[in-house]
Here is the input.
Amino acid sequence: MGKKEKYKFQIRHDKIKLGAHTVRLLILSPLDRKTQKVPGVLWIHGGGYQAGNAHEVFFTRALSMVKKFGMVLVTPEYRLSKRHPYPAALNDCHAALLWLRDHAEELGVRTDQIMVGGESAGGGMCVALCMLVRDRKEVNIAFHMPLYPMLDDRETESNRDNHAKNWNTKKNNKAWKRYLRNSYGTDLVTRYAAPARCKDYRGLPPCYTFVGDIEPFYDETLTYVKHLQEAGIRAEVDVYPDFWHGYDVLVPGSEKSRQAIAKFEEKVAYAIEHDFAPQNGEPAGSAQ
Here is the structure.
């Protein structure tokens, strides 16, 4: 696709009943489609599991997936840990992913190109969700994009005594305590709550991420990619020097941000061309 090519898109809302709770969805769909069906992505916003909202997609990497690549994007207003600790947010995102799968025909989404992404806590939730649906054999994910993800509730070299801009050790510890409550700091924490606790990375989808070398999540991001690679999964990470947490969103016009954004879009384009995961019982090519 040419750099000047833009897509007009439709904005709409839907909702899912999850017991007594309602999960609200924000949906962006391209109006100008090159093909009848396009890849679909569940994008999960950041905010330390305790803040943020679905409309963050309008100023994060998510928007180019609709405007530039013509994908359908679904993002949930998941419950935040200030009032609803784990597993409320994961349950909401899980329900949204199943909704995307089940409404693929209506949305014009290829069922063999369902992808998941997010930044920060949304990146952590992206990984947890991929692990959950892999273990339950519910949804086959073609590609995942956990950008500078929040994965490990335990101490690492980079999240210990970190005083970088925007996110630091104090904020990180407070957020994890709020999300995990009484299980924080214990062996009761599962891989679905803190994905760095995972012991088996086999069967997870291909991955791309980027991270800064001075932010708290540097070590856990590189460790996650290493585990994927050791499990035989295509996984790539780009590291940007002096790139603090959320730098690409908060300083999008800088040279480093432009470089990170361009590389991210390059990897998305590659995934669209090469990554397919037919759903259980579906023959290859049936999703077109």
